[in-house]
Amino acid sequence: xxxxxxxxPSSAVTNKTNISQSRRKAISNQTTSMSxxxxxxxxxxxxxxxxxxxxxxxxxxxxxxTLLLDRKQIDVDETDRRAFFTTVGSSFAALxxxxxxxxxxxxxxxxxxxxxxxxxxxxxxxxxxxxxGSARVxxxxxxxxxxxxxxxLTKAEVDTTTAATWAYRANPGFSPSLTKSGSFLxxxxxxxxxxxxxxxxxxxxxxxxxYPSDWLQLDRAIGGIQYVDQxxxxxLYVLRATLPEGESLAKISKAxxxxxxxxxxxxxxxxxNTIEDYKVTSAKILSDCPDxxxxxxxxxxxxxxxxxxxxxxxxRRGLVDAYQFESDIYMLMASSTAVAFEKDGxxxxxxxxxxxxxxxx
Length: 361
Hints:
By secondary structure, the protein is an alpha+beta fold. The chain is built from 9 helices and 12 strands.
C-alpha cells in the first residue's frame, strides 16, 4: 500500500506531462497551418498572459509538483513565442519583397459582346476597356488622324476671311459709355472703341449708336456687341468683315454682302438659329468719299428666315448700315419680324432709328 501510494503521484505527474506534451504538439501543428494574421493575434494574446503574472497564480493555488510543471510549461511557451516571432517576421518580409500584379484593369474578356443579348451599344463600349494601354494609344492616334483630316478640309474648302464676325471691342474689360438720349430719354447712346482694321496701323476705331434702354445685351463675355428686345425678339448686331480682294463697299454686289453677313461660319449663323433664304433686296450709298479722306457709308435692306431648335420658322426683315475702313467694313444690322417690319409701325421705326444713328470713325 505504501508503494502504491508513492507510485500514484508519480503516475499522475507523468500523465499530466504526457497530456501537456500532446497539447503543445497540437498547438504547434495548428499554428503552422494558421495565416499570418491569426499568428499575430496569438502573439499578442500570449504576450498578455506573460505580462499578467502566470507564475503567481500557480504558486498561490497549486502543489509544488504542479508549480514546477507550470514553470516548465512557461519555459516551453516562451520558446513557442520565439518561434512565432521568427515565423511571422519571415512571412512579412516575404510579402513585402514579393512582386504584386496590378489589378487596375477591367477584365471583360468573358463578356458577351456580339449584341445578340442585351444592349449592343453597351457591349461595344465595353470592348474598349481591354485593360491595356495599347488600346488607348490606338484611340488617340485615330482621333489625331481625324482631326488632321478635318483641319485640312477646313483650310481647303472654307475661306474664313469671307465671313462677317463680331466687331470686337478694343477694351472688353471695361464697360462702354452709355448716356440717355431721345426726346423722352428712352434710349441709350452707346460709345466705345472697336478693334481696328486688319493689318492697319490704326489699332482701334470709335463707334456710336442709339438703342432702346430696355433692350438686353447678349454674349457680353465674348467681347462682341449684340442687343435684343426680349418682348418681341428684335435685335441689333455690330459686325466686321474683310472685303474680297479687289472689292470696295461702293461697288460690291448685294449678293456678296449677303454672303458675308450670313456665311455659315460667321457670327450670326453661329449665334443660335439656322439661317435660311437670305437675300439683300436693295442697296444705296448714303455718303461717298471719292478722295479717300473719309469713310464710304452704304445701306442695305435684307430679308431672311430663322429656324429655331424646335423647327419654328420665322420670317425676318432688317436694315444694315456699313462703313469701309481700308479693306474692312464695319456694319450695324437691326432686324424685326417680317410682319412688324412691313406694317411700318413702331418696330420698323425703331430699326430705322438704330441704323441711322450708327457712326464709326
